[in-house]
Give the backbone structure.
Amino acid sequence: MQLDLSIIIPTFNERENVQKLVELLHQAIGEKIKWEAIFVDDNSPDGTYQEIQKSAKAWGNVRGIRRVGRRGLSSAVIEGMLASSAKFFMVMDGDLQHDEKIIPKMLAAIQANNLDLVVGSRFVGAGSTGELAANRVKISRFATTLSQQILKIKLTDPMSGFFMLSRQFFEQNVGRLSAIGFKILLDLIASSKTPPAFVELPYQMRKRTAGESKLEPIVVWEYLLLLLDKSIGRFIPLRFMMFVAVGLSGVLVHLGILYVAINLNYSFVIAQIIATIMAMTSNYILNNIFTYKDKRLTGRKFFQGLLSFYLACSFGFLVNILLADFLFELNNIWWLAGLLGAVVGSVWNYGMTKYITWR
Ligand SMILES: Nc1nc2c(ncn2[C@@H]2O[C@H](COP(=O)(O)OP(=O)(O)O)[C@@H](O)[C@H]2O)c(=O)[nH]1
Ligand SMILES: [Mg+2]
């Protein structure tokens, strides 16, 4: 049977909301629309998946995807869509904050006007953020302005997690998605080569009654990464940018330790060796946390990775010094020689560690 609509619901620790949401959806959508709900649960420790299973047994149009060992709202939503065969997709939170009653209106709008997107907005017409805490509204407003400025997006609520899209729009863009963090709508719009055809329909956000918000500092960080990836990322890979940022922090560590070691009366050579090892170690740890968050090495692999990182970076160091020295002999411009040596060395280190340390 060709479904009209798949409603993708990412969940993490939403045990108490699942059954209630499924009931509300059935009340709101009615019989004429052929629809299903697909929960994508990241193996929540609170047993959300068991609740999804219960609902799936009770209703023919409810199913669940359980992802083990993975986290991420955007990537969960993408996987949900990939598992669907419907003409249209809907994304909504599993915490009852989104107003399911406007879903039929959204579907009618997207079908009648051949749109790419229909977005539930808290900032048009009768829309509102409800009882959302004032500081959350501020963060949301700020994030919205930032994305409107940087990515030239015309939506009033690009941070919305409540929207509908056509299969065609999804399939055109799925290969370009960054799939980082929380903001899948923004990711979709910014990935599209042409501005999407959309309308925004107002909705009033409800208060969360069960479970907790997963908005943590890491989400803000991931949001900034998404903006970076969607702007400069077209020209320079995001990972490389992070690798270079970590490298710059390593220069500070190096100079700091060198200073301390020399003041402790170590010879310059010994001080330089200590500083180099410390800076490489700190670079490795930071890259493992931030640059390769998704491939983080732990346990025994952490130490194997550290050794391969030392090895790769010592070659990079050699390449850097030899090249800089050669260029300096050639043109005598110290900063150009130094800079080019450092750039080639970092590209080398990035390439090597990408393939041997974080395979
Ligand atoms: N699958 C999955 N769902 C998530 C993840 N993080 C949050 N969610 C779900 O995404 C929805 C929105 O998250 P929520 O914490 O309510 O964010 P808020 O509305 O911005 O406070 C909820 O249904 C969460 O359970 C995640 O890492 N994986
Ligand atoms: Mg929420």
